[in-house]
Design goal:
Layout: H1 2-31, H2 33-43, E1 44-49, E2 56-57, E3 63-75, H3 86-92, H4 96-109, E4 115-122, H5 123-133, E5 139-149, H6 155-158, E6 161-163, H7 166-171, E7 180-182, H8 185-189, H9 191-194, E8 199-205, E9 211-214, E10 230-232, H10 236-245, E11 251-257, E12 262-269, H11 282-292, H12 301-304, H13 313-324, H14 358-364, H15 367-378, H16 386-399, H17 421-428, H18 452-463, E13 467-469, E14 474-477, E15 491-493, H19 498-514, E16 528-534, E17 542-549, E18 556-562, H20 572-585, H21 591-598, H22 613-622
Parallel strand pairs: 2-10
Antiparallel strand pairs: 1-8, 2-3, 3-4, 3-5, 6-7, 8-9, 10-14, 11-12, 11-18, 13-15, 16-17, 17-18
Length: 631
C-alpha cells in the first residue's frame, strides 16, 4: 500500500512539473511580447542605405567635385570558387598570401555570410577585372560612391575622404565601419552638410543569414537623403592658372575678393591631382606623397607655411605710425644706403632718391625710412614707457590678424608670429631689449613671420580702406533647404583712419606705375602693389608680392610668394599680373610673360616620384602585384 501511494505521489509530481513547463512554454511562445520581439530580431536585418555625397561647384557654378562609383568585393566562403587567383593580385595588388588570409578570416566569421574581401576599387580597375570575374563563384560586388574631381586642382583646400576609423565612430554614432568621412579641407569642415542622411532597409533572413525578402513589404524602410550641394568661392579657372604658373616652383598664391572675404584661388606648390586619393590606389599614392616626395605636396603652404614677410610689412608699419601720430605724411627721413643711426648701418638699403616721405618710401621700398619710423614710434614720449609703445604696436598687428588665426573655414591653420613683450623678455631678459634691438621688425624680418593667407588678408584690409571679412571658401548652398543655416563670417575693423589708407594706396599704385613692382602692370587697370624679398637663412631669398585691383572698388586682392626666387619684383610681381589679367579680363593677355614664367624652374637636382597612373600600373607589374597594405 505504501508503494502504491508513493507511486501516485511521484507520478503526480512529474505531472505537475510537466504542466509547469507546458504553461511556461506557452507563455514564452504565445503570450510574452519580449520573447516575440527577440525572435523577430533574430530574423530581421537592418541594412543601412548610404546617401550620395553633396556635389561641390565653383563660384561660377561649374561642377567641380562630383561622385563616382567604386566597387567592394565580398565573398561567401561556402560558395567560393576562384579558378585563377592571379586575378586579384594582377589588378588589386593582393598577394596570394594575403588572399588566403582574407578567405580564412571570412571562414572564421561565417561560411554562410558575405564578408568583404577588398574595398574601394575604382571603375577602371573593376572594368578590367570584370572580364574574368564571371568565372568565379561566391564573389559578389557592392557599388558605393566616392569622389571624382572634374578639375584636378585645389587638392590642398578640397581635402579628401577616407574610411572612418574607431575614433570617428566613437565621436559620432552616425558612422559605422566602412563609411566614408571628410578627412581634411572643405570635405572635413562641411562634413555634416555634405554627408546627407542615411536611410534604412529592413530585410528578412533565414537561419543561415541569407536574405529571403523585405520585412512588412518595406513599410518601415526610409529613403536616404542626399548631401547638400555647395557652391564654394573658388574660381576654378583662376586656380588652374595659378597651379600651372607654379609648376617647378615652391610657394603659394592666395587671392581673395576684398568685399566679401571669399577665397578666389588658394595655390600650394608643389601640389598633386586630388584624384590620386580616390579608389583602391589611394594608399599607394598617399604613401608616395607623404614619404617619398621630398617637396611635401601634402603640406598646405598658404595655410601652414610661415615666412618673414619682408618689405610688404613696411606698409603696415607706416599705417600704424601714421595713425598713432608718431609719423606724419610730411615727415622725411634720409637714406644713405642704410639706417645711419644703427652702429652697422642696418638694415642696409638700395640706391634711390633721398630724403623720402612715407609716400615715396613705399614706392621705392626704403629700408632706412621704415627703420627710423619704427624706432621713433617705440621711443616716442607719447607713451609712458617703451613697453607701452611696443604693446600698442603689437595690438595693431593683431587687429590685422598678423600672428593670429584668421579663422578660415578649413582646419589646420598656423598663426605665424608677432613676438609679444613676454617673448622678448624670455629671449633677451626683462628690460634688456629696446627698439634698436628689434629694428629688423620694421622691414618684416627679425622674428616676424606670416602665412601667405595672412598676407592676402592684410591686402584686403588695405583694399577696403580699414576692414576685412574673415576669409572663407563657403559661398552658398546650391539648393537651399528650409532648415539651412549658412555660416557667418565676421567683419573686422583695423582701427586705422581712412585718410591714411588713401595715402598708402596712392603710394602702392606708384609702386606698380614707377617703382619696384612695374612687372605687375595690367593694361587699363590701376593696380596697387608692394614688392618684398624675404630673407632665407637656408638658401636664396623668397620672392614676395602683394597687390589689389582695381584701385577703386577692388575686386581681387592677392599675395604671391615663390621660395628661393630672390627679388619680389622679378618673379612674384609678374605672376600676380597674370592672375589679375585672368580674373579681371577673363584671359591672360601677356603671353610673353606667361611663357617666361612657365618655363622657369627653381628646383635644382630634385627628383620626384612618378605619379602617373601608367607608372603605378608598371610598378605594380614589376613587383608582381604583391603589395601589402601600407599607409
Amino acid at each position: 500500500m505504501q508503494y502504491r501511494e508513493r507511486r501516485f505521489f511521484i507520478l503526480g509530481l512529474i505531472g505537475i512539473i510537466f504542466l509547469v513547463f507546458v504553461i511556461r512554454l506557452f507563455y514564452l511562445q504565445v503570450l510574452s511580447p519580449d520573447f516575440a520581439a527577440r525572435a523577430e530580431r533574430n530574423v530581421i536585418k537592418k541594412e543601412i542605405l548610404i546617401p550620395s555625397r553633396g556635389i561641390i561647384y565653383d563660384r561660377t557654378e561649374r561642377i567641380y567635385v562630383t561622385n563616382t562609383p567604386i566597387y567592394n568585393l565580398y565573398i561567401t566562403p561556402k560558395e567560393l570558387y576562384i579558378p585563377d587567383s592571379t586575378l586579384f593580385y594582377k589588378h588589386l595588388g593582393m598577394s596570394p598570401a594575403r588572399l588566403r588570409r582574407k578567405i580564412q578570416e571570412a571562414r572564421d566569421f561565417s561560411i554562410h555570410k558575405k564578408t568583404q574581401l577588398e574595398g574601394g576599387i575604382n571603375a577602371d580597375v573593376f572594368r578590367r577585372m570584370q572580364e574574368q570575374l564571371w568565372k568565379t563563384r561566391g564573389v559578389y560586388v557592392e557599388v558605393r560612391n566616392t569622389r571624382e574631381y572634374l578639375y584636378p586642382v585645389g587638392a590642398n583646400y578640397l581635402g579628401y575622404i577616407s574610411e572612418v576609423n574607431d575614433g570617428d565612430i566613437a565621436v559620432d554614432k552616425y558612422y559605422q565601419s566602412g563609411d566614408f568621412i571628410g578627412t581634411t579641407g572643405i570635405e572635413r569642415r562641411y562634413e555634416p552638410i555634405l554627408r546627407g542622411r542615411k536611410g534604412v532597409r529592413h530585410v528578412l533572413e533565414d537561419v543561415h543569414g541569407r536574405e529571403v525578402g523585405p520585412f512588412h513589404n518595406g513599410d518601415h524602410d526610409t529613403i536616404p537623403e542626399k548631401g547638400e550641394d555647395l557652391i564654394i568661392s573658388i574660381d576654378v579657372k583662376l586656380q588652374e592658372l595659378g597651379e600651372h604658373l607654379m609648376q617647378h616652383k615652391t610657394g603659394s598664391i592666395v587671392a581673395i575678393e576684398p568685399a566679401t572675404g571669399e577665397i578666389l584661388a588658394f595655390v600650394s606648390a608643389p601640389t598633386y591631382d586630388p584624384n590620386y586619393l580616390v579608389g583602391s590606389q589611394r594608399l599607394k599614392y598617399f604613401y608616395r606623397l607623404l614619404q617619398k616626395d621630398t617637396l611635401k605636396p601634402l603640406f598646405n603652404r598658404p595655410l601652414q607655411a610661415t615666412y618673414p614677410p619682408g618689405s610688404i610689412f613696411k606698409v603696415l608699419n607706416g599705417l600704424i605710425a601714421l595713425n598713432e601720430g608718431t609719423l606724419s605724411p610730411q615727415t622725411a627721413y634720409p637714406c644713405g644706403g642704410g639706417f645711419s643711426r644703427h652702429p652697422q648701418g642696418k638694415p642696409k638699403c638700395h640706391p634711390h632718391p633721398s630724403p623720402l616721405t612715407v609716400h615715396a618710401a613705399i614706392q621705392h621700398s626704403c629700408n632706412a625710412f621704415f627703420a627710423a619710423t619704427y624706432v621713433d614710434m617705440l621711443n616716442s614720449r607719447k607713451y609712458a614707457s617703451f613697453y607701452e609703445a611696443y604693446n600698442r604696436w603689437h595690438m595693431y598687428m593683431e587687429r590685422f590678424d598678423v600672428g593670429k588665426l584668421t579663422g578660415i573655414d578649413i582646419p589646420n591653420e598656423k598663426k605665424g608670429l608677432i613676438p609679444s613683450q613676454a617673448f622678448y623678455d624670455r629671449w633677451y631678459g626683462k628690460n634688456r631689449w629696446k627698439a634698436m634691438t628689434i629694428v629688423s621688425n620694421s622691414i618684416g624680418q627679425g622674428e616676424v613671420t606670416m602665412t601667405p593667407l595672412q598676407m592676402a588678408n592684410v591686402v584686403c584690409a588695405i583694399a577696403n580702406r580699414g576692414h576685412y571679412i574673415q576669409p572663407h571658401f563657403f559661398k552658398r548652398f546650391a539648393n537651399p533647404r528650409a532648415d539651412d543655416s549658412p555660416p557667418r563670417f565676421e567683419r573686422v575693423e583695423t582701427g586705422i583712419s581712412h585718410e591714411y589708407y588713401e595715402l598708402v594706396t596712392d603710394a602702392m599704385e606708384q609702386v606698380v606705375v614707377a617703382g619696384t613692382g612695374i612687372g605687375a602692370q595690367v593694361k587699363d587697370i590701376a593696380v596697387c602693389g608692394k614688392t618684398g624679398t624675404a630673407e632665407n637663412p637656408h638658401g636664396e631669398d623668397h620672392s614676395v608680392f602683394i597687390a589689389f585691383a582695381p584701385k577703386e572698388n577692388p575686386r581681387i586682392a592677392l599675395a604671391v610668394i615663390i621660395e628661393n626666387a630672390g627679388f619680389g619684383g622679378q618673379w612674384a610681381a609678374p605672376m600676380a599680373k597674370l592672375m589679375l589679367e585672368q580674373y579681371l579680363k577673363g584671359k591672360v593677355e601677356s603671353t610673353d610673360v606667361y611663357q617666361y614664367l612657365t618655363e622657369k624652374t627653381f628646383w635644382v637636382n630634385i627628383k620626384r616620384p612618378d605619379y602617373s597612373l601608367d607608372s603605378f600600373e608598371r610598378w605594380l607589374e614589376q613587383v608582381g602585384g604583391m603589395v601589402e597594405d601600407k599607409p
